[in-house]
Every structure is written in C-alpha cells, then in structure tokens.
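Milestone 3.1: sequence recovery, worked example.
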C-alpha cells in the first residue's frame, strides 16, 4: 500500500514556541509541528492558556509532555484535550538536568515498564494518538538491546508511532548541547528497528541537514523524518520546498513571500502588547545562505530589541537581501 511519510519539526526547548511554529507553518503546509516540552505538573498547576494555547493555523500540531507519574500525565492530557491538538507526545529523550532531577525524559528509557504505564495512562484521557519520542539508549546501555526492549514495552502499551533520536543520551558528563552533538549517530539501528517491528511507524531524528538526506532516509523504508536545529537555523533550506520534495506538492513560496506573510501576524502581536523580538528572533535564518543574510540578521537582532520597535524594523532588515536582487535586475 502507498504510504504517506511524516515530515516533522522537532520539539525544541525555548525555540518552538507559538511564534516559531506559526512562522514554520508558512513555509510548509505538510510539516507536523511540535510544541516545546511542557511538564505535566506545569499543565496541572500553571497558566494553561499560556502553556497550551496556539493559533489554528499551526495544525497539524502535537503537544509534547514531560513527566513520569502516570496519574499526573493522565490529568495533563485531560486538561489539554479540549485545546484540540492532533497528537500527544511523551518525551523519553531529553537529557537535561531538569529531567534528570525529575526522573523523566531520557531517564524513562531505563524503566521501560514505567514508560509503558505512563503511555497507557495518557491514552485513557486522550482523544488523539499518543506517541513517544526517545533516544537509542542512555549512558552505559547497549542500544542494540535497550532500544528493542523499550520499543516492545511501548508496543505492548498500544503505541503505534515513535520518533527516535538516533543518538544515545549521556545523563552523566554531557550537557544538553553536547548530547546533541557528541554521541555518534546510528541511523542504521533506527532502520533496523523499523525492519524488526514493521507494525510500528518509525520516524528518525538527529543529524538530518537537508531535504535530500530526509528523502534518502524515507527511501530506505523509514516512515518519517524529524528535523531539528537545521530547520531552525536555515528554514529556507529545510522547510521551504519540503512539500514539493517529499510530497510532490506544487509550491511557489520563497523567503520574501514568507516575510511578507508574517507582517499581519506581527502586527497583531504588537497590537496585543507583544515585543517585536519575541517573533523575529525565530526569523533570523530565513535568508540563510543568500546574499545580504548577514545584514538581515544584524538589523533584526539589534533593531527588534529597541523599545517601541515595529514593522519598520522588518522593512529595514529586508533591504540587505533585496538590494542584490535589484542590482541583478539592472
């Protein structure tokens, strides 16, 4: 049977907030977007609309939750359900000090039975699919043994879809940044898991820096690809064109059209009392690799932080990237 791949932008703390997701959606109608990780206790006790609210344009959108208490996760999912997310995702891959202290995130890979219990509890309250994002193992685990055991526990709990970051997480000795770069990638192991568990929908994450790489991994038989920091730093190269390259859609968007399409959103944000930098900080890479990109970044980074900064800063930032085109036209 023909299969439709999933192309997703990974959940990234402090990055994939609602402004970032709206911006990314303008570049790809097909990409599945993910929230930053939100802990179950924060959902239960925090400002729910601030944590869970989103623009309808962001669909398809997944909420990523963090936690290791099945009851808390069940309650958090029940609270989030009316917001209308398309997927609820359990974080079993984050290696930060915060998750280590709370014994969730990547720590859950050490206790597959507890991870399965958490998922089962979430499913009881969720009207949509519950998925899991994990690593290939943690610390001294042998990924060839730990990952299959973890996936089998999830399958036993009814999980049908996982996203696997193809690196180990080192909870001891490496920072979160180092955990994204130092542990070697093992795409082959993720592919082996897809072959070993064909019933499981497997997306791969980690080290995917181009649409050509994404397509090659899909052609090998994986069900989806999840791109992270490459999509954030160079969205014009990873997101613009993704719908055409991976799904065959007709796509005429370019970076200039995306910048123009952001204007009404920015205007609404400013009118509501928001700061320009809160939105434009996610737009720095829009012209990555193009003439004038450095000027675009410099003007946005300095001008958007000024008191009262408005759309005139966006207009000024566009000049360094439009002037080379005007010169070519002449």
């Amino acid at each position: 049977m023909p299969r439709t791949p999933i192309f997703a932008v990974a959940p990234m703390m402090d990055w994939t907030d609602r402004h970032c997701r709206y911006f990314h959606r303008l570049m790809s109608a097909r990409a599945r977007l993910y929230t930053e990780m939100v802990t179950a206790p924060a959902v239960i006790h925090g400002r729910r609309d601030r944590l869970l609210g989103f623009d309808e344009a962001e669909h398809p959108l997944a909420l990523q939750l963090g936690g290791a208490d099945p009851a808390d996760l069940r309650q958090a999912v029940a609270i989030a359900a009316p917001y209308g997310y398309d997927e609820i995702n359990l974080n079993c891959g984050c290696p930060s000090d915060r998750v280590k202290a709370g014994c969730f995130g990547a720590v859950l890979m050490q206790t597959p039975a507890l991870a399965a219990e958490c998922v089962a509890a979430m499913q009881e309250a969720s009207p949509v699919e519950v998925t899991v994002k994990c690593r290939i193992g943690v610390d001294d685990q042998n990924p060839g043994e730990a990952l299959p055991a973890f996936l089998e526990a999830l399958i036993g709990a009814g999980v049908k879809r996982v996203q696997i970051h193809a690196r180990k997480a080192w909870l001891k000795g490496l920072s979160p940044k180092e955990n994204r770069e130092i542990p070697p990638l093992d795409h082959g192991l993720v592919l082996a898991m897809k072959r070993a568990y064909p019933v499981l929908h497997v997306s791969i994450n980690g080290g995917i820096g181009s649409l050509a790489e994404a397509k090659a991994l899909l052609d090998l038989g994986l069900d989806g690809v999840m791109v992270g920091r490459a999509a954030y730093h160079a969205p014009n190269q990873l997101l613009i064109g993704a719908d055409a390259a991976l799904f065959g859609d007709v796509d005429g968007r370019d970076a200039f059209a995306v910048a123009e399409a952001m204007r009404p959103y920015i205007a609404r944000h400013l009118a509501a009392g928001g700061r320009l930098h809160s939105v434009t900080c996610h737009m720095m890479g829009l012209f990555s690799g193009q003439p004038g990109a450095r000027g675009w970044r410099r003007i946005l980074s300095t001008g958007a932080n000024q008191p009262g900064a408005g759309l005139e800063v966006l207009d000024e930032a566009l000049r360094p990237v439009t002037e080379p085109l005007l010169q070519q036209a002449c």
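The mean pLDDT is 94. Residues 20 and 282 are 6 Å apart (CA to CA).
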